[in-house]
Automatic annotation (TrEMBL):
Record-linked InterPro entries: FAD-bd_oxidored_4_C (IPR004113), FAD-bd_PCMH (IPR016166), FAD-bd_PCMH-like_sf (IPR036318), FAD-bd_PCMH_sub1 (IPR016167), FAD-bd_PCMH_sub2 (IPR016169), FAD-linked_Oxase-like_C (IPR016164), FAD-oxidored/transferase_4 (IPR051264), Oxid_FAD_bind_N (IPR006094)
Lineage of the species this protein comes from: Bacteria, Pseudomonadati, Pseudomonadota, Gammaproteobacteria, Pseudomonadales
Record protein name field: D-2-hydroxyglutarate dehydrogenase
One example of a Gene Ontology biological process annotation: respiratory electron transport chain
UniProt KW keywords: FAD, Flavoprotein, Metal-binding, Oxidoreductase, Zinc
Subunit structure, interactors included: Homodimer.
Organism (species): Marinobacter antarcticus
One Gene Ontology term of the molecular function aspect: (R)-2-hydroxyglutarate dehydrogenase activity
Organism domain of life: Bacteria
Cofactor(s) annotated in UniProt: FAD
Recorded family membership: Belongs to the FAD-binding oxidoreductase/transferase type 4 family.
Domain FAD-binding PCMH-type, first and last residues per copy: 41-220
Length: 467
Protein backbone atom coordinates (compact mmCIF):
# COMPACT_ATOMS: atom_id res chain seq x y z
CA UNK A 1 0.00 0.00 0.00
CA UNK A 2 1.06 3.56 -0.62
CA UNK A 3 1.64 5.89 2.31
CA UNK A 4 -1.53 7.87 1.58
CA UNK A 5 -3.60 4.70 1.56
CA UNK A 6 -2.12 3.51 4.84
CA UNK A 7 -2.87 6.83 6.53
CA UNK A 8 -6.43 6.86 5.20
CA UNK A 9 -6.96 3.31 6.48
CA UNK A 10 -5.55 4.20 9.91
CA UNK A 11 -8.04 7.06 10.20
CA UNK A 12 -10.92 4.73 9.42
CA UNK A 13 -9.75 2.14 11.96
CA UNK A 14 -9.67 4.53 14.94
CA UNK A 15 -12.81 6.46 13.98
CA UNK A 16 -15.02 3.65 15.31
CA UNK A 17 -16.86 3.41 18.63
CA UNK A 18 -18.04 6.03 21.10
CA UNK A 19 -14.50 7.32 21.64
CA UNK A 20 -12.77 7.86 18.27
CA UNK A 21 -9.01 8.08 18.17
CA UNK A 22 -6.76 10.39 16.17
CA UNK A 23 -4.15 10.16 13.43
CA UNK A 24 -1.46 12.85 13.24
CA UNK A 25 0.79 13.55 10.26
CA UNK A 26 2.05 17.10 10.81
CA UNK A 27 5.88 17.28 10.72
CA UNK A 28 6.01 18.67 14.28
CA UNK A 29 3.93 15.75 15.56
CA UNK A 30 6.04 13.23 13.68
CA UNK A 31 9.16 14.72 15.23
CA UNK A 32 7.71 14.83 18.75
CA UNK A 33 6.11 11.38 18.86
CA UNK A 34 8.79 9.60 16.85
CA UNK A 35 11.56 9.94 19.43
CA UNK A 36 12.40 9.44 23.08
CA UNK A 37 15.04 11.06 25.30
CA UNK A 38 17.92 9.57 23.30
CA UNK A 39 19.44 11.82 20.68
CA UNK A 40 21.25 9.28 18.55
CA UNK A 41 18.60 8.33 15.97
CA UNK A 42 16.59 10.82 13.92
CA UNK A 43 12.83 10.18 14.11
CA UNK A 44 11.13 9.34 10.81
CA UNK A 45 7.64 7.89 11.41
CA UNK A 46 4.96 7.65 8.73
CA UNK A 47 2.12 8.67 11.04
CA UNK A 48 1.08 8.86 14.69
CA UNK A 49 -2.02 7.01 15.86
CA UNK A 50 -3.61 7.84 19.21
CA UNK A 51 -6.19 5.15 19.93
CA UNK A 52 -8.82 5.40 22.66
CA UNK A 53 -9.72 1.75 23.21
CA UNK A 54 -8.17 -1.70 23.30
CA UNK A 55 -10.41 -2.68 20.38
CA UNK A 56 -8.95 0.11 18.25
CA UNK A 57 -5.46 -1.14 19.09
CA UNK A 58 -6.51 -4.64 18.07
CA UNK A 59 -7.84 -3.32 14.74
CA UNK A 60 -4.54 -1.51 14.13
CA UNK A 61 -2.52 -4.67 14.77
CA UNK A 62 -4.68 -6.78 12.48
CA UNK A 63 -4.40 -4.18 9.74
CA UNK A 64 -0.63 -4.02 10.23
CA UNK A 65 -0.37 -7.81 9.90
CA UNK A 66 -2.41 -7.85 6.71
CA UNK A 67 -0.40 -5.04 5.12
CA UNK A 68 3.07 -5.56 6.62
CA UNK A 69 3.06 -2.20 8.40
CA UNK A 70 5.52 -1.83 11.28
CA UNK A 71 4.12 -0.41 14.56
CA UNK A 72 6.12 1.28 17.33
CA UNK A 73 4.59 1.77 20.80
CA UNK A 74 5.00 5.17 22.42
CA UNK A 75 4.32 6.14 26.03
CA UNK A 76 5.76 9.20 27.72
CA UNK A 77 8.81 9.06 25.42
CA UNK A 78 11.18 9.30 28.38
CA UNK A 79 13.13 6.18 27.40
CA UNK A 80 16.92 6.19 27.27
CA UNK A 81 17.65 3.25 24.93
CA UNK A 82 15.73 4.30 21.80
CA UNK A 83 13.15 1.62 22.44
CA UNK A 84 10.31 3.92 21.32
CA UNK A 85 12.10 5.61 18.42
CA UNK A 86 10.49 5.29 14.99
CA UNK A 87 13.39 5.89 12.59
CA UNK A 88 12.33 3.84 9.56
CA UNK A 89 8.90 4.95 8.44
CA UNK A 90 6.95 3.02 11.08
CA UNK A 91 3.52 3.95 12.42
CA UNK A 92 3.72 5.12 16.03
CA UNK A 93 0.95 3.96 18.36
CA UNK A 94 0.89 6.51 21.18
CA UNK A 95 -1.15 5.97 24.34
CA UNK A 96 -1.51 9.58 25.47
CA UNK A 97 -5.30 9.46 25.03
CA UNK A 98 -5.72 6.13 26.84
CA UNK A 99 -5.06 7.77 30.19
CA UNK A 100 -7.99 6.89 32.41
CA UNK A 101 -8.10 5.18 35.78
CA UNK A 102 -10.87 2.67 35.15
CA UNK A 103 -11.54 0.94 38.46
CA UNK A 104 -10.41 0.88 42.07
CA UNK A 105 -10.91 -1.54 44.94
CA UNK A 106 -9.89 -0.22 48.35
CA UNK A 107 -10.29 -3.61 50.01
CA UNK A 108 -8.08 -5.32 47.41
CA UNK A 109 -5.75 -2.32 47.13
CA UNK A 110 -5.94 -2.67 43.34
CA UNK A 111 -6.34 0.02 40.69
CA UNK A 112 -7.00 -0.69 37.01
CA UNK A 113 -5.44 1.84 34.63
CA UNK A 114 -5.12 2.42 30.93
CA UNK A 115 -1.58 2.28 29.59
CA UNK A 116 -1.30 6.05 29.12
CA UNK A 117 -1.80 6.89 32.80
CA UNK A 118 1.18 8.99 33.90
CA UNK A 119 3.21 7.67 36.84
CA UNK A 120 2.56 10.77 38.93
CA UNK A 121 -1.16 10.51 38.16
CA UNK A 122 -1.19 7.02 39.66
CA UNK A 123 0.86 8.16 42.65
CA UNK A 124 -1.55 11.02 43.30
CA UNK A 125 -4.58 8.76 42.95
CA UNK A 126 -3.10 6.38 45.51
CA UNK A 127 -2.39 9.25 47.91
CA UNK A 128 -5.94 10.60 47.56
CA UNK A 129 -7.15 7.18 48.66
CA UNK A 130 -4.69 7.03 51.60
CA UNK A 131 -2.51 4.46 49.84
CA UNK A 132 0.86 4.46 48.13
CA UNK A 133 2.29 3.56 44.72
CA UNK A 134 6.02 3.27 45.45
CA UNK A 135 7.62 3.01 42.00
CA UNK A 136 9.22 6.42 41.53
CA UNK A 137 11.82 8.16 39.37
CA UNK A 138 12.75 11.57 38.02
CA UNK A 139 10.47 11.22 34.97
CA UNK A 140 7.36 10.42 37.05
CA UNK A 141 5.66 13.57 35.80
CA UNK A 142 5.71 12.45 32.17
CA UNK A 143 6.46 8.71 31.97
CA UNK A 144 3.45 6.49 31.31
CA UNK A 145 2.49 3.24 32.96
CA UNK A 146 2.63 1.18 29.76
CA UNK A 147 6.15 2.35 29.07
CA UNK A 148 7.20 1.77 32.68
CA UNK A 149 6.00 -1.82 32.49
CA UNK A 150 7.48 -2.40 29.05
CA UNK A 151 10.92 -1.54 30.45
CA UNK A 152 10.25 -2.89 33.97
CA UNK A 153 11.22 0.51 35.35
CA UNK A 154 12.79 0.61 38.80
CA UNK A 155 13.85 4.00 40.10
CA UNK A 156 14.73 5.21 43.55
CA UNK A 157 12.73 2.90 45.86
CA UNK A 158 13.79 -0.53 44.56
CA UNK A 159 15.81 -1.40 47.66
CA UNK A 160 12.54 -1.51 49.64
CA UNK A 161 9.73 -1.93 47.11
CA UNK A 162 11.21 -3.70 44.08
CA UNK A 163 10.67 -3.06 40.37
CA UNK A 164 7.50 -2.23 38.41
CA UNK A 165 7.05 -5.96 37.82
CA UNK A 166 6.41 -6.51 41.51
CA UNK A 167 3.31 -4.28 41.49
CA UNK A 168 1.41 -5.76 38.55
CA UNK A 169 -1.66 -7.83 39.43
CA UNK A 170 -2.93 -8.18 35.86
CA UNK A 171 -2.52 -6.97 32.29
CA UNK A 172 -4.68 -6.57 29.22
CA UNK A 173 -2.58 -6.84 26.07
CA UNK A 174 -2.97 -7.01 22.32
CA UNK A 175 -0.45 -9.49 20.95
CA UNK A 176 1.48 -9.07 17.72
CA UNK A 177 -1.03 -11.44 16.12
CA UNK A 178 -3.95 -9.22 17.15
CA UNK A 179 -5.32 -11.32 20.01
CA UNK A 180 -6.62 -9.62 23.16
CA UNK A 181 -5.42 -11.41 26.31
CA UNK A 182 -6.46 -10.80 29.91
CA UNK A 183 -3.42 -11.96 31.86
CA UNK A 184 -3.73 -13.23 35.45
CA UNK A 185 -7.13 -11.54 36.04
CA UNK A 186 -5.70 -9.65 39.05
CA UNK A 187 -5.37 -12.78 41.16
CA UNK A 188 -2.93 -13.03 44.07
CA UNK A 189 -2.72 -16.80 43.53
CA UNK A 190 -3.01 -18.32 40.08
CA UNK A 191 -0.86 -21.38 39.54
CA UNK A 192 -2.21 -22.47 36.14
CA UNK A 193 0.82 -22.66 33.92
CA UNK A 194 3.03 -19.97 32.43
CA UNK A 195 2.48 -16.45 33.79
CA UNK A 196 2.39 -14.59 30.49
CA UNK A 197 2.09 -11.14 32.05
CA UNK A 198 5.76 -11.34 33.00
CA UNK A 199 6.75 -11.88 29.36
CA UNK A 200 5.19 -8.55 28.45
CA UNK A 201 6.76 -6.74 31.41
CA UNK A 202 10.24 -5.74 30.24
CA UNK A 203 9.60 -6.79 26.61
CA UNK A 204 9.86 -3.17 25.36
CA UNK A 205 6.69 -3.56 23.32
CA UNK A 206 8.17 -6.23 21.05
CA UNK A 207 5.50 -8.88 21.78
CA UNK A 208 2.45 -6.63 21.57
CA UNK A 209 0.82 -3.66 23.25
CA UNK A 210 -0.07 -3.31 26.92
CA UNK A 211 -3.40 -1.44 26.93
CA UNK A 212 -4.45 -1.84 30.58
CA UNK A 213 -2.73 -2.75 33.83
CA UNK A 214 -4.08 -3.52 37.28
CA UNK A 215 -1.59 -2.25 39.81
CA UNK A 216 -1.17 -3.09 43.48
CA UNK A 217 -1.02 -0.32 46.05
CA UNK A 218 0.53 -0.28 49.52
CA UNK A 219 0.12 1.58 52.80
CA UNK A 220 1.51 5.09 52.91
CA UNK A 221 4.97 5.40 54.47
CA UNK A 222 5.19 7.23 57.77
CA UNK A 223 7.46 10.28 58.25
CA UNK A 224 9.99 9.63 55.49
CA UNK A 225 13.31 11.07 56.59
CA UNK A 226 16.37 11.74 54.42
CA UNK A 227 20.02 11.56 55.42
CA UNK A 228 22.75 12.82 53.06
CA UNK A 229 26.31 11.72 53.86
CA UNK A 230 29.65 12.81 52.44
CA UNK A 231 31.76 9.69 51.90
CA UNK A 232 35.53 9.50 52.25
CA UNK A 233 36.00 6.84 49.58
CA UNK A 234 34.02 4.94 46.97
CA UNK A 235 34.35 1.69 48.89
CA UNK A 236 32.67 3.33 51.88
CA UNK A 237 29.33 3.21 50.04
CA UNK A 238 29.05 -0.47 50.91
CA UNK A 239 30.35 0.02 54.46
CA UNK A 240 27.65 2.61 55.11
CA UNK A 241 24.94 0.56 53.44
CA UNK A 242 25.75 -2.53 55.47
CA UNK A 243 25.87 -0.54 58.70
CA UNK A 244 22.53 1.20 58.22
CA UNK A 245 20.77 -1.92 56.98
CA UNK A 246 21.81 -3.68 60.17
CA UNK A 247 19.57 -1.34 62.14
CA UNK A 248 17.05 0.25 59.75
CA UNK A 249 14.75 -0.74 56.90
CA UNK A 250 15.85 1.71 54.20
CA UNK A 251 13.37 2.87 51.56
CA UNK A 252 16.15 4.29 49.35
CA UNK A 253 19.94 4.30 49.12
CA UNK A 254 21.25 6.53 46.35
CA UNK A 255 24.74 7.58 45.31
CA UNK A 256 26.27 10.46 43.36
CA UNK A 257 29.72 11.88 42.79
CA UNK A 258 30.96 15.35 43.71
CA UNK A 259 31.07 16.21 40.01
CA UNK A 260 27.41 15.23 39.65
CA UNK A 261 26.39 17.42 42.57
CA UNK A 262 28.45 20.26 41.13
CA UNK A 263 26.26 20.40 38.04
CA UNK A 264 23.12 20.50 40.19
CA UNK A 265 24.51 23.31 42.38
CA UNK A 266 25.56 25.29 39.31
CA UNK A 267 21.89 25.66 38.37
CA UNK A 268 21.36 27.61 41.59
CA UNK A 269 18.07 25.96 42.64
CA UNK A 270 19.60 23.69 45.27
CA UNK A 271 22.14 24.35 48.02
CA UNK A 272 25.01 22.13 49.12
CA UNK A 273 23.94 19.87 52.02
CA UNK A 274 26.92 20.94 54.18
CA UNK A 275 30.19 22.86 53.89
CA UNK A 276 32.49 19.82 53.84
CA UNK A 277 33.34 18.61 50.34
CA UNK A 278 33.47 14.88 49.72
CA UNK A 279 34.36 12.86 46.61
CA UNK A 280 31.11 10.87 46.86
CA UNK A 281 27.74 11.21 48.54
CA UNK A 282 25.08 8.78 49.73
CA UNK A 283 21.41 9.64 50.20
CA UNK A 284 19.49 7.39 52.58
CA UNK A 285 15.76 7.42 53.21
CA UNK A 286 13.87 5.63 55.97
CA UNK A 287 10.63 5.81 57.93
CA UNK A 288 11.22 7.64 61.21
CA UNK A 289 8.24 6.06 62.94
CA UNK A 290 9.40 6.87 66.48
CA UNK A 291 12.00 8.72 68.49
CA UNK A 292 13.77 5.40 68.94
CA UNK A 293 14.20 5.02 65.17
CA UNK A 294 15.74 8.50 64.99
CA UNK A 295 18.06 7.65 67.87
CA UNK A 296 19.10 4.46 66.08
CA UNK A 297 19.78 6.41 62.88
CA UNK A 298 21.98 8.91 64.69
CA UNK A 299 23.86 6.12 66.45
CA UNK A 300 24.56 4.43 63.10
CA UNK A 301 25.68 7.77 61.66
CA UNK A 302 28.11 8.27 64.53
CA UNK A 303 29.45 4.76 64.04
CA UNK A 304 30.18 5.55 60.37
CA UNK A 305 31.90 8.80 61.37
CA UNK A 306 34.07 7.03 63.94
CA UNK A 307 35.17 4.49 61.33
CA UNK A 308 36.24 7.30 58.98
CA UNK A 309 33.76 6.30 56.29
CA UNK A 310 31.73 9.50 56.52
CA UNK A 311 33.13 13.03 56.51
CA UNK A 312 29.93 14.92 57.23
CA UNK A 313 26.18 14.56 57.05
CA UNK A 314 22.78 16.18 57.40
CA UNK A 315 19.39 14.75 58.34
CA UNK A 316 16.05 16.26 57.31
CA UNK A 317 13.96 17.87 60.03
CA UNK A 318 10.82 18.37 57.95
CA UNK A 319 9.10 17.07 54.83
CA UNK A 320 10.19 20.19 52.94
CA UNK A 321 13.83 19.69 53.88
CA UNK A 322 13.61 16.01 52.87
CA UNK A 323 12.28 17.05 49.46
CA UNK A 324 15.07 19.61 49.08
CA UNK A 325 17.73 17.02 49.89
CA UNK A 326 16.22 14.67 47.29
CA UNK A 327 16.74 17.42 44.70
CA UNK A 328 20.50 16.87 44.99
CA UNK A 329 19.96 13.45 43.41
CA UNK A 330 16.88 13.93 41.25
CA UNK A 331 18.10 17.06 39.43
CA UNK A 332 21.30 15.46 38.14
CA UNK A 333 19.90 14.27 34.80
CA UNK A 334 18.25 17.64 34.19
CA UNK A 335 21.40 19.58 35.06
CA UNK A 336 23.69 17.62 32.71
CA UNK A 337 21.20 17.40 29.82
CA UNK A 338 22.61 20.49 28.01
CA UNK A 339 25.96 18.66 27.75
CA UNK A 340 24.43 15.88 25.58
CA UNK A 341 25.39 13.03 27.93
CA UNK A 342 26.02 9.53 26.62
CA UNK A 343 24.30 7.30 29.16
CA UNK A 344 25.01 3.77 30.28
CA UNK A 345 22.68 2.05 32.75
CA UNK A 346 24.52 -0.94 34.19
CA UNK A 347 24.19 -3.21 37.21
CA UNK A 348 25.93 -5.87 39.25
CA UNK A 349 25.31 -7.63 42.55
CA UNK A 350 25.45 -4.96 45.27
CA UNK A 351 28.56 -6.34 46.98
CA UNK A 352 30.55 -6.04 43.74
CA UNK A 353 29.74 -2.37 43.12
CA UNK A 354 32.93 -0.64 44.42
CA UNK A 355 35.41 -2.76 42.42
CA UNK A 356 33.14 -2.74 39.37
CA UNK A 357 32.74 1.03 39.39
CA UNK A 358 36.47 1.58 40.00
CA UNK A 359 37.48 -0.55 37.01
CA UNK A 360 35.07 1.18 34.66
CA UNK A 361 36.03 4.64 35.85
CA UNK A 362 39.73 3.88 35.27
CA UNK A 363 39.10 2.54 31.75
CA UNK A 364 37.00 5.50 30.66
CA UNK A 365 39.28 8.09 32.28
CA UNK A 366 42.46 6.54 30.85
CA UNK A 367 41.17 6.32 27.28
CA UNK A 368 39.35 9.67 27.24
CA UNK A 369 40.92 11.98 29.82
CA UNK A 370 39.21 15.01 28.23
CA UNK A 371 35.72 13.58 28.81
CA UNK A 372 33.92 14.50 32.02
CA UNK A 373 32.53 11.42 33.77
CA UNK A 374 29.42 11.74 35.94
CA UNK A 375 28.46 8.87 38.23
CA UNK A 376 25.19 8.45 40.09
CA UNK A 377 22.62 5.75 40.62
CA UNK A 378 20.61 3.39 42.75
CA UNK A 379 23.63 1.89 44.43
CA UNK A 380 21.50 0.13 47.03
CA UNK A 381 20.31 -2.31 44.35
CA UNK A 382 23.53 -2.40 42.32
CA UNK A 383 22.34 -0.06 39.54
CA UNK A 384 24.82 2.60 38.37
CA UNK A 385 24.38 5.34 35.77
CA UNK A 386 27.53 6.20 33.85
CA UNK A 387 27.23 9.53 32.03
CA UNK A 388 29.93 10.78 29.68
CA UNK A 389 29.54 14.48 28.88
CA UNK A 390 30.21 15.83 25.40
CA UNK A 391 33.00 18.43 25.19
CA UNK A 392 31.59 21.72 23.94
CA UNK A 393 33.87 21.84 20.88
CA UNK A 394 33.15 18.27 19.70
CA UNK A 395 30.50 17.40 17.13
CA UNK A 396 27.69 15.20 18.43
CA UNK A 397 28.34 12.51 15.81
CA UNK A 398 32.06 12.30 16.68
CA UNK A 399 31.24 12.19 20.38
CA UNK A 400 28.76 9.32 20.04
CA UNK A 401 31.22 7.39 17.88
CA UNK A 402 33.93 7.67 20.53
CA UNK A 403 31.49 6.67 23.28
CA UNK A 404 30.53 3.57 21.36
CA UNK A 405 34.21 2.62 21.33
CA UNK A 406 34.17 3.00 25.12
CA UNK A 407 31.14 0.69 25.32
CA UNK A 408 33.16 -2.37 24.35
CA UNK A 409 35.57 -1.88 27.24
CA UNK A 410 32.79 -1.02 29.68
CA UNK A 411 30.68 -4.03 28.75
CA UNK A 412 33.63 -6.39 28.91
CA UNK A 413 33.90 -5.36 32.56
CA UNK A 414 30.14 -5.84 32.96
CA UNK A 415 30.51 -9.36 31.56
CA UNK A 416 33.47 -10.05 33.86
CA UNK A 417 31.35 -9.12 36.88
CA UNK A 418 28.34 -11.04 35.51
CA UNK A 419 26.30 -7.86 35.40
CA UNK A 420 23.72 -6.34 33.06
CA UNK A 421 24.30 -3.89 30.20
CA UNK A 422 20.86 -2.42 30.95
CA UNK A 423 19.57 -2.43 34.52
CA UNK A 424 16.28 -0.57 33.98
CA UNK A 425 16.34 1.40 30.72
CA UNK A 426 15.86 -1.54 28.37
CA UNK A 427 17.82 -2.61 25.30
CA UNK A 428 16.05 -0.76 22.50
CA UNK A 429 18.48 0.08 19.74
CA UNK A 430 21.33 1.61 21.73
CA UNK A 431 22.13 -1.56 23.73
CA UNK A 432 21.19 -4.05 21.01
CA UNK A 433 24.79 -4.58 19.79
CA UNK A 434 25.86 -5.47 23.33
CA UNK A 435 23.16 -7.91 24.40
CA UNK A 436 25.60 -10.83 24.26
CA UNK A 437 27.57 -9.37 27.16
CA UNK A 438 24.63 -10.19 29.46
CA UNK A 439 22.68 -12.90 27.63
CA UNK A 440 24.06 -16.19 26.33
CA UNK A 441 23.53 -17.36 22.74
CA UNK A 442 21.06 -19.94 24.01
CA UNK A 443 19.07 -17.32 25.92
CA UNK A 444 18.92 -15.02 22.90
CA UNK A 445 17.68 -17.91 20.77
CA UNK A 446 14.85 -18.50 23.26
CA UNK A 447 14.04 -14.77 23.25
CA UNK A 448 13.76 -14.86 19.46
CA UNK A 449 11.51 -17.90 19.73
CA UNK A 450 9.16 -16.10 22.13
CA UNK A 451 9.04 -13.11 19.79
CA UNK A 452 8.12 -15.43 16.91
CA UNK A 453 5.19 -16.91 18.87
CA UNK A 454 3.59 -13.58 19.77
CA UNK A 455 4.57 -11.58 16.67
CA UNK A 456 5.20 -14.04 13.81
CA UNK A 457 5.29 -11.35 11.11
CA UNK A 458 7.66 -9.11 13.07
CA UNK A 459 5.52 -5.99 12.86
CA UNK A 460 5.61 -4.90 16.53
CA UNK A 461 8.53 -2.62 17.39
CA UNK A 462 10.91 -4.26 14.92
CA UNK A 463 14.66 -3.80 15.32
CA UNK A 464 14.47 -3.41 19.11
CA UNK A 465 16.36 -5.76 21.49
CA UNK A 466 17.54 -7.82 18.45
CA UNK A 467 17.06 -7.79 14.68
Amino acid sequence: MKSEQIIASLKELVATGEAPGKVLTDPADLESYGKDWTRIYAPNPLAIVLPKTTEQVQALVKFANENRVALVPSGGRTGLSAGAVAANGEVVVAFDNMNQILDFSASDRLVRCQAGVVTEQLQNFAEENHLYYPVDFASAGSSQLGGNLSTNAGGIKVIRYGMSRDWVAGLKVVTGKGDILDLNKDLAKNNTGYDLRHLFIGAEGTLGFITEATMKLSRQPNNLTVLVLGLNDLGNTMDVLKTFQSGLDLTAYEFFSHQAMGHVLAHGQVQAPFETEAPYYALLEFEATSDQVMDDAMSLFEQCMENGWVLDGVISQSETQAQNLWQLRERISESIAPRTPYKNDISVVVSKVPGFLQEIDEVVTNHYPDFEIIWFGHIGDGNLHLNILKPENMAKEDFFEKCQQVNKWVFEIVEKYQGSVSAEHGVGMTKKPYLQYTRSEAEIAYLRGIKQVFDPKGIINPGKIFD
